[in-house]
Amino acid sequence: MKASDLFLRCLEKQGVNTIYGVPGEENADLMISLLDSPIEFITTRHEQTASFMAEMHGRLTGIPGVCLATLGPGATNLLTGVAQANMDNAPLVAVIGQAESARLHKESHQNMDAVSMFKAVTKWSTTIREADAIPEVIAKAFKVATSGVPGAVLIELPEDIAHHQTNARPLQAFQKNIDIGTTDHQLNKALELLKQSQKPLLLIGDGAVRTESDKQLATFLDKTKLYSAHTFMGKGAVSNLYERSLHCVGLGMKDVVIEAFEQADLVICIGYDLVEYPPSRWNTGVHKKIIHIGAAAAEVDMSYVPDLEMVGHIPTIIDQVNEKLSADYCKEDTYFKVIQEKAQHDIRSDKADDSFPMKPKRILQDVRATLADSDMLVSDVGAHKMWVARQYGARQSKTCFISNGFCSMGGSMPGALEAKRLNPDKNVVAVCGDGGFMMSIQALSTGVQLKVPFVTVLWEDDSYGLIEWKQEMGFNTSSPHVHLENPDLAKLAEAFGCHSIRINAANEFIPALENALGQQDVPTVIVVPVDYSENMKLFHHLHRVVR
């Protein structure tokens, strides 16, 4: 068997049914072998789109998404999405071609040490030197990518190795033990800390969403009546409709919810990772004890020293806690009620503003009113991300995706494309700014080619809006370097073969969104001029109302 054929047989054994990428000379053997494989290859117009699609595949399915590029610029183009998958904890396996082994020791065409370059942004990065090692390398890659906290892995396959003959056979697919829980000693200590606390608070992070711990968390909250907050990436594990929800923490300024953290004497962190929001921002005020429940031990940080760490499968650990809960642990008193009402009122106010350009709150109110609870929103990075995090209410895990680890612009449209491709029965909306839109516009071409009808709601302000906002907050000025001169973005989307429309009044938005969600053939882009004067209004408002 040719090594490239074996490589694909091994991927099939791991449950891979799709590879995203760009063909090249040094991965040519794999491309030819794909002709005899049930694995579908999705050709993208840029390797970054491929890696973002693979990241979303891993995030939604739990099976590592696989992306493919050639050596040199193909590998460097792949890097951004791989880094995002690794820092945002999505399982991904990146495969790159490489020059033949005989010239790797010297300066030669497009040859570089890609393995070393990827080591900084992966859990494991390796090259294949022998065709017979392919089964072990791939089995290990999938085990590393999915074990503990998921992440990215890189496999480099030199072109001469891909062409070799081998008698090796695929290894059995790795079966991860997902039922690892905690000990009775730790459970009893957790319950003791909870019983002793006067103002406990739950902080939900990405790990709870990743493991879809919704039911376990709902039972825990029903038994304990704790107040709950979540990070940007923890949205949906606890519904925003939960009566004791304090909503989202993580805004780059002091928001209402921080008042509760300042008073809390116990914070139970479930699936929380320090990359989501620095603990120094919320571990303030009253001295507080911390319980860490996660797939891996807590990172070392002066502001995050847990009194108890419970490491394992998050839903299993919460189930174990729930079994031991009794009425003694119920916190019926409304110790954060005033703060909760204040946060709720602040989020719900001013959303019916009919002015144009549209206010951020109004846009997100209309999106939330239009989408079902199980539909998906994929946010890009920019000023709109802050508004999505603060205003958009998610009600289920894996229905609102916000990168707040690596935070790369340009990921929303490739992510929404893949989410819709995997879930054709659900509505999927990408929310992006004009900056991020232009960084991944080639994803529209792939969406048209695949006939995947996801919807992009494009917030147009002719600026790198988040940077402008930060400049105004930090320096009391806005720099001319953030301003953009855009083409007609609606016509540009149409030129790619998409449906497109530009909104000219606030009352046009919901009908346009409903029409877009009804399309069944190709993507739709809705250009919505946005009033980002609201950014600094929010900044000054929070300075007035937050203690």
From TrEMBL:
The keyword Nucleotide-binding does not apply. It comes from the Bacteria. Residues 1-117 form the Thiamine pyrophosphate enzyme N-terminal TPP-binding domain. SUPFAM superfamilies: DHS-like NAD/FAD-binding domain (SSF52467), Thiamin diphosphate-binding fold (THDP-binding) (SSF52518). The keyword Iron does not apply. NCBIfam families: PRK08322.1 (NF006187). This is Acetolactate synthase. It comes from Piscirickettsia litoralis. The lineage of its organism: Bacteria, Pseudomonadati, Pseudomonadota, Gammaproteobacteria, Thiotrichales.
